[in-house]
Amino acid sequence: MTEPSSTELPATASPQVEFISLSHLNPSTELNPVPSRGIDLAYFRRYVRWLEESGYDYTLLPYGSNSADSFVIASAVGQLTERLRPIVAVRPNTAFPLVAAQQLATLDQLTEGRAVVHIISGGSDAEQARQGDYLPKDRRYDRTSEFIDLLRRAWTETSPFSHSGEFYKFDDFGPGFAPYGKTIPISIGGQSDAAFEVGGAKADIFSFWGEPLADLRSEIDRVNGIAAAAGRADRPRIWVTFRPIIAQTDKLAWEKAHDYVAKIERTFKGGNYHKRYLGTATGPQNVGSQRALEFAAQSDVYDRALWTRTAAATGGAGASTALVGSPETVAAAILDYVDQGASLVSIRGYDTLADAIDYGRYIVPLVRQELAHRAATGQRGTLQADHPGALAPGFDLATSAGSR
Ligand SMILES: Cc1cc2nc3c(=O)[nH]c(=O)nc-3n(C[C@H](O)[C@H](O)[C@H](O)COP(=O)(O)O)c2cc1C
């Protein structure tokens, strides 16, 4: 790996980066859970409009058996914003592929080409069973593979076609309702072998939760290897997800991080925050969560700013790994991932709305400024060298966060 202090750009560096958030429907957070199952419309409107104002490019509408419906919310996001792209999380068990294709094409037309789909094969058998899906996980990925093929055909075939596959059968469909653009980007979430096989071969975007840089590097190589073996000319875009904790200085940010993790631990121990992705009493069944917990067991801090205590505190439930530091340090840490090839970066705070506003003010412009510098000069700027964070010689977590 090239030293982050060097001005030379690694060959793997992405020349562009786009930012993703996740749309919150009410002010409840892991820090301060508010008992509610509903949509606070004023809050939701404000949240998505701020995302657009803050320079975000996308927002994820997650899917869970007891969450709001991701399609309906995505449609609202489209109408509340002008530019923000809704990423609809879709579990293949919830809709016949041609129906999902129709819903996505409708959303794409309604948003003039902004729709993206994130396909969730399902990480927990118990959660899948809640909506009548009893396939084991590897078979769920086989179904995802056929589902993706049918989405693409439904959007592009110009004459009627029939299909008799392993999971789906139909006659004389089409041409279907077409998207606004030529097609709709398809993203895959999941870290099991089956997820890599399907995503590497077929997805436009492959997504990760925050991992140490060296681990992410080898995972990206794996995705690219599978894409090459599948005969693809292109490679999936890489999406990586963090929960940054920022303050004016690195020291203040680490103090805040320790306060946050104490609150998050209280929330999860109290059992009053719902654990959507957790599998069984013995731990999560999905590999993404298992990896998050393994990283946390090995070290609290990795690289410049990656902090795993929040992942441990939530039991690895969903995206939970933090980046901790001043805006400069966190922007530099994001650039470390961009250097590895990430071109989609999800940053969503534990203090959801306030953090979205802060990231828009203090992080997004720094990353964009560095990329503009790189585009103009072909070299790294000084941000990464000037803000080493936890890479600084003598960095010590205990002293950096005060006497804790
Ligand atoms: C960025 C990202 C977003 C995700 N969003 C969801 C979601 O909205 N709903 C859900 O059930 N799982 C979500 N997942 C979890 C996985 O996609 C899911 O557990 C996977 O299908 C199976 O896990 P595995 O392949 O890692 O074992 C997300 C994963 C990632 C990386």
UniProtKB/TrEMBL annotation:
**InterPro entries named in the record:** Luciferase-like_dom, Luciferase-like_sf, SsuD_RutA_monooxygenase
Enumerate the residue ranges of region (Disordered).
Answer: 378-404
Q: What are the GO MF terms of this UniProt record?
A: monooxygenase activity; oxidoreductase activity, acting on paired donors, with incorporation or reduction of molecular oxygen
Q: Which keywords, in A-to-Z order, does the entry hold?
A: Flavoprotein, FMN, Monooxygenase, Oxidoreductase
Q: State the superkingdom.
A: Bacteria
Establish whether keyword Transferase is in the entry. no
Cross-referenced CDD domains, in alphabetical order? Alkanesulfonate_monoxygenase
Leader sequence residues: none
Q: Which Pfam families match?
A: Bac_luciferase
Domain Luciferase-like spans what residues? 37-343
Record-given protein name: Alkanesulfonate monooxygenase
Q: Which organism was this protein described from?
A: Parafrankia irregularis
